[in-house]
Every structure is written in structure tokens, then in C-alpha cells.
Amino acid sequence: MGKLKFGKAIATGNTATIYVNDKTIMKVYKDYLPPAEAEMEARKQRFAHACGLPVPKVLDVTMVENKQVLIMEYIKGNTLGELLFKNEKKAEYYMSLSIDIQQQIHQHDGIALEPISYKWGRQIVDSQILDEESKSLLLNKLKTMPQETRLCHGDLHLFNLVKAEGSVWIIDWVDAGAGDSRADVCRTYLLYAENHQDLADLYLHIYCSKTGLTKEDILQWIPIVAAARLSENVSEENLDKLLKIIQYYLYR
Known about the structure:
The chain is an alpha+beta fold. It has ten helices and ten strands. A five-stranded antiparallel sheet has the order 1-2-3-5-4, with helices on one face. The chain has a three-stranded antiparallel sheet with strand order 6-8-9. It has a two-stranded antiparallel sheet with strand order 7-10. A hairpin with a 3-residue loop joins strand 1 (about 10) and strand 2. Helix 2 packs antiparallel against helix 3, helix 3 (about 90-105) packs across helix 7 and helix 4 (about 115-125) runs antiparallel to helix 5. The protein is globular, with a radius of gyration of 18 Å.
């Protein structure tokens, strides 16, 4: 593809920079990522869109100036996270709405995608932080966990839900896969708990109230989810939190 204007940068993360150009979003990946990273994320997003979920359309996957670029539909609106922090009195409403959407995702079979437990297993094996004894205990625990094939977003939280056009759209499907819905819920809980324990507690309380599941049903996954999370770019403070979670749940 020829010269392409990226437009205005609106966000930069560990793996990519996001640009807005007319009515499209352009996700430009960092150079260190595998050469098929953009195509892999596009495949997951196309799969979720084909399920009938409110997901932005993938328009193209291309190379620009030797960089992988994922081009998708631009949904202009505010994230539920932005809306909540503008009006914290509506925290329960926005959290409840996000849980309804997460349950809609879990209604779909994700068997066409890689199991999330496979990815987490690789992250535990490759960890430079965990000792060999902890790795062995975690991998043995992983073998005993429920292996379902529900569609799991893998990174669902209030800032990956965009309220626009009378609907709430689900973005950022890079961590999606097939698995136990409780594992996906545990991952969401952990993401909140790293920085906002009050939101994590609210999320878990509402989710259990809606589904009849217990906190123990969900938190059985937490040492595995926390161990896999160690491979991501987390702050020193959160790294310490994750290690404490692993020690508590693995050795109690």
C-alpha cells in the first residue's frame, strides 16, 4: 500500500499507537511484535463481529513504512470508564451495564480461537520472575481447571467499552480467546484490583448477584491469571501485588 496518513494520535500503549483518520481508527504496531500480530488481532475482531456483537468492523490489515497497521471503523463516543469517573454516583449502573455485555460475549462459542489457558500456560512457562516450584504448582493447577470454549474477551473493563450511537461497542480484542467464562471474569476483576480495589469489589459483587456464582467460583482462577499477567508491562507496585496474590492463593 502507498503513502497513508496516520492522522491524529489519540493513545499510545505497550504494543501500538492509535490514530484517528477521518472515520477510521489506525492501530500502528510497535516494531518488536511478531510479523502476524495485526492479522491475528484482526481475525479475532472479525470473529467477534461475525457473532453479531457490537464490535467495530475491520477494514484492512496492511503495512505502512514497514509497520503493521490494523484499520478499523471509528466509533466516536466516550468509554464507560470516562463516564463513570465524570459521575461516580453512577458507578453501579455502568458496572452493571458492562457485566451485561460481558455475559453477552460469553454466550458465544469461541472454539475457533486459541484457548486462553494455552496462552496463560506459555506465559507462566516463559516467566523470568516466577521460580520453578511456583511454575510447576501453577501449571499443575491449570491442568485441573475447567476447560470450556466460551468466547472470552480477555481484557474487558470499562475503558474498552465505548458508548456511542445508542449502543455500547466492545473494542480491543487482541487478548480474546476460548475458555471458561469464570476465567475471563477473574481477569477483569484482577485488572480492576490493580488500581481500584473498590471497583473490583463492586464488579465482583454485581457479577455474583446477577449470575448466582460465588466469589470462590471466580477467584479459583486468580493465581493463574495473576501469574500470566506478570508477563505484561505492569508497574513495580502492581508487580508486587501480583506476586502477593500468587503466594497467598497458591500456598494457603
